[in-house]
Amino acid sequence: MKTNESLLTARNKNVPQGPFNVHPIFADKAKGAIITDVEGREYIDFAGGIGVVNVGHCDEKVVEAIGDQIKKCIHTCFHVVMYEPYVTLAKRLNEITPGDFPKKTMFANSGAEAVENAIKIARHATSRPAVIAFEDAFHGRTLLALSLTSKMKPYKFGFAPYAPEIYRMPYAYCYRCAFGLEYPNCELRCAYFLRDFFHTHISAEQVGAIIVEPVLGEGGFVVPPKEYFKVLKNICEEHGIVFIADEIQTGFGRTAKMFAMEHYEVEPDILVMAKSMAGGLPLSGITGRAELMDHPQVGGLGGTFGGNPVACRAALAVLDLFEKKDLLSRAKKIGEKVLERFREFKEHYPIVGDVRGLGAMVGMEFVVDKKTKEPGTAFAKRLTGLCREKGLLMISAGTYSNIIRPLMPLVITDEQLEKGFSIIEESLRELHNNSKS
Q1: Do 106 and 305 meet the contact criterion of CB atoms below 8 Å apart?
Q2: Residue 282 in this model has a pLDDT that exceeds 90
Q3: Number of domains in the chain
Q4: Fewest beta carbons within 10 Å, which of 52, 73, 177, 338?
């Protein structure tokens, strides 16, 4: 029988250290919100493959759609011989993404590819090279996407030089405001700062696009004030700048809307998506205003595997599941429960500095001291380890890796959810008691 230890030894011998592993276990199977390792131990999954399995592991309808498509064709390359699932999925996404205007959609394989294609489209349409991204943002690991990403270690360290014409401004991180202000008395200084940015960093006439996450994912589940994106979008419209929403982690129900920008009542010019799009298969989408999407010349966009027919069928099944299981309502209920319990933890444990969330995207930030807000990186790391020992899988986030970000499947049962909370509370109690001794 293979064990986690024997497989870990083989992994270290044959796989480089670069691909990081949060937990030293190997999955044998997964279903719903439960992962079973090779030794037969079950874990409640609060990580969700980093937000990839919102509809749950191995949903029957997704597996059925995959199986049916595999019997027909696995690959022809959409650029050589087209197939219906690509077009059908594009049509459905054009209909459900925010924006009351004609849209078109193309597909790639990963979130990073979606980001890079969105930037290409914006640059082509505006004939402007500069792109504005934000502090604490994460947009991927390929050259341009990595250049847009903010966190230095481990993502960017040692991989310079980065792509040129990337400019970075502060995000609306209210708990750690870059301007030392408090909402709402701040009058959204962080948003209106964009006007100053055009004078001090890059002129508006050179900026082709702004790319921003509606809620920071890897950056720590930071939720901006509701008016924030309207200000940014209005300034972009004044200067002919393409507004790109990176919904790779927020999309497909995580915030209790299909796409998080719906909460802010903002219609992005281009929206990029991936992660939970295809129930676990690699697929990403770029949806935008038809006139923007049609700007690049024939052959200017694409890729061999982009919009694979099997992945497209899986994504169509995912969209059906959201309707049939009312997963957006479920996400809202899950988010309410997580927010309530995390706020209780904040009241009882001094190491919890902040709790914030939107829908089922709720973060808990650890600090060494609530007054200084010194990041409690070690607390977050130790908590994930303690929870794993008790049968719960979680992951951290944030520039200082001091934030717990639960990404449980939206099909998780109330019993599994409550058991997960109990494990977190038990582990927090241990951390708290150890920190006092």
Answers
A1: no
A2: yes
A3: 2
A4: 73
d(CA 217, CA 254): 11
**Which tokens belong to 37?**
């390792």
Beta strands across the sheet bearing 34-37: 27-31, 34-37, 42-45, 392-393
Q: Does residue 429 contact residue 383 with C-beta atoms inside 8 Å?
A: no
Same domain membership, residue 289 and residue 142: yes
Contacts of 123 (CB under 8 A, 6+ apart): 129, 131, 208, 209
Please name which of 355, 118, 122, 357 lies closest in space to residue 248, comparing C-alpha atoms. Answer: 118
Q: Are strands 130-134 and 166-169 parallel, antiparallel or unpaired?
A: parallel
CATH number for position 343: 3.90.1150.10
> pLDDT-based confidence at 433, cuts 50/70/90?
confident
**What would the mean pLDDT of 87-93 be, rounded to a whole number?**
98
**Is the model's pLDDT at 2 over the cut of 80?**
yes
Kindly report the number of other CB atoms within 10 A of residue 219's CB atom. 25
Contact 215, 222 (CB under 8 A): yes
- Give me the CATH number covering residue 257: 3.40.640.10
Residue 295 and residue 313 share a domain: yes
What is d(CA 209, CA 377) in angstroms, rounded to the nearest whole number? 33
Q: How confident is the model at residue 437 (pLDDT cuts 50, 70, 90)?
A: low
Domain that holds residue 296: 62-324
Residues 249 and 347 in one domain: no
> 290's torsion region: left (phi>0), alpha (psi -120 to 50) or beta?
alpha
Q: Which of 267, 302, 324 is the last residue of a domain?
A: 324
Look up residue 162 and give its DSSP letter.
P
Question: Which own/partner pairs from 149-152 qualify as long-range (CB within 8 Å, at least 24 positions apart)?
Answer: 150/219, 150/399, 151/218, 151/219, 151/399
Determine phi and psi for 291, rounding to 5 degrees. -70, -30
Say yes or no: 400 and 366 in one domain: yes
402 and 389 in a common domain: yes
The verdict on 300 and 200 lying in the same domain is yes
pTM of the model: 0.97
> Does residue 195 share a domain with residue 128?
yes
Half-sphere exposure of 305 (CA within 13 A, CB side): 10
Q: Which of 324, 349, 378 is the last residue of a domain?
A: 324
End-to-end CA distance of the chain: 41
* Contact between residue 328 and residue 322 where contact means Cβ atoms under 8 Å apart: yes
pLDDT, position 434: 80
Whether residue 99 sits in one domain with residue 194: yes
For residue 132, list its beta bridge partners.
167, 210
